[in-house]
Amino acid sequence: MADAIDRFYGVIPAGGVGSRLWPLSRAEAPKFLHDVVGNGSTLLRATWDRLAPLCAEDRLLVVTGEAHAKEVRAQLPELIEENIVLESEGRESTAAIGLAAAILQRRVPDAIIGSFAADHLIGATDRFAAAVREAVEAADAGAIVTIGIQPIEPSTAFGYIRAGKPLKIPAAPSARKVDAFVEKPKEATARRYLASGEYLWNAGMFFARVDRLMEALAESNPTLAAGINEIADAWGTDQQAEVTARVWPNLEKIAIDYTVAEPAAARGELAVIPGYFQWDDVGDFAAVSRLRKSTNGNGVTVHGNESNVVVVDGSGLIINHTDRVVAIAGIKDIVVVDTPDALLVTTAANAQKVKQLVAEIKASKRPEVL
To answer: For residue 175, what are the contacts with CB-CB under 8 A and spacing of at least 6?
Structure first.
């Protein structure tokens, strides 16, 4: 049998709207297709480039919406056609990752899968690669595995993983048993987690042998597993279009955290590899402002046409995609996103409320700006 890393397949679920980054992120052009933090690469491209040294191009799959297929192919010209899995509509991460795993199970029964969101920012790629290699080895040993990020602050924006005792897997010496998942905490609780040293941020990266993942899903959600397997059985045949059109829209929309990871943790079968690298899910404009620092000395970070931005005694983030002059006076930590058909004005402290704005706009029947 080939070494574990040689049986490793990276899966990139590229879905979601990124509504907290509206109006930069839209249904037709979600955040993973953008260079959100101004480092010269879209989030999707950066995800691919991180994984390429760990597995050959023919072992990288992307699961994305039909509406995004053209741009995904343009950004990832190395992506081979049989490794792009198109969704007619989003059905959450269990369906996306599960279908990729089920397709791979039929191609390479001993494959090891790792899933990586297309819209996260990761630094220290050598440390990232080391964590992935350990995760792959732990998965080959039979565990379902996640990578948990060593927290650097008491963040209330992320879920947490409580890490337990070392698992003593020779090829994955950092692996620890997962005792529990914890939803986003209040600040006082987050401070307690940080001080304890027992908690890691949940970065949503999951690893397993494909047979192990599908067994776990069948145990926790047999109906969903059956639907995914029905599609996978037809994949690549004359029946693919008919079966997918019939089954896919009826699959339950649920995150893989709830169908695979949390049940595995409850059974004592989930491992975590601590990750000592920069990670951020770039979940709102406060994150963008934090990650993209001002370089002009006036306290304002500008993404776009900087010559059209005028600031007097202000600070914050301005994303300017029009020819309009944007002028800020006496406002701290402001967020302005100016696009041709929509203007957002908020503050970093209220950045999470942008999702509520999107819901209000949707209710007002203005879908053309979403």
So the answer is: 134, 138, 143, 145, 166, 167, 169, 271, 272, 273
Cα–Cα distances (Å) from 44 to 48, 79, 122, in that order, read: 6, 12, 12
- The 10 Å Cβ neighbour count of residue 189 is 15
**314-351 core/surface letters (b: 16 or more CB in 10 A; e: else):** bbbbbbbeeeeebebeebebbbbbbbeebebebbbeeb
**Rg, Å, the chain Cα set:** 21
18, 34 contact by CB (below 8 A): no
**Alpha helices (runs of H) in 62-186, residue ranges in sequence order:** 69-75, 92-107, 125-140
pLDDT tens figures, 263-321: 999 999 999 999 999 999 999 999 998 887 666 666 788 888 888 899 999 999 999 98
Spatial distance between the Cα atoms of 121 and 34, rounded to a whole number of angstroms: 12
**Each residue of 34-90: pLDDT tens digit?**
999 888 899 999 999 999 999 999 999 999 999 999 999 999 999 999 999 999 999
Given a contact cutoff of 8 angstroms between Cβ atoms, the answer to whether 23 and 342 are in contact is yes
CA distance readout (Å), 368 to 61, 175, 178, 188 = 31, 47, 44, 41
Task: Work out the mean pLDDT of the chain and round it to a whole number.
Answer: 94
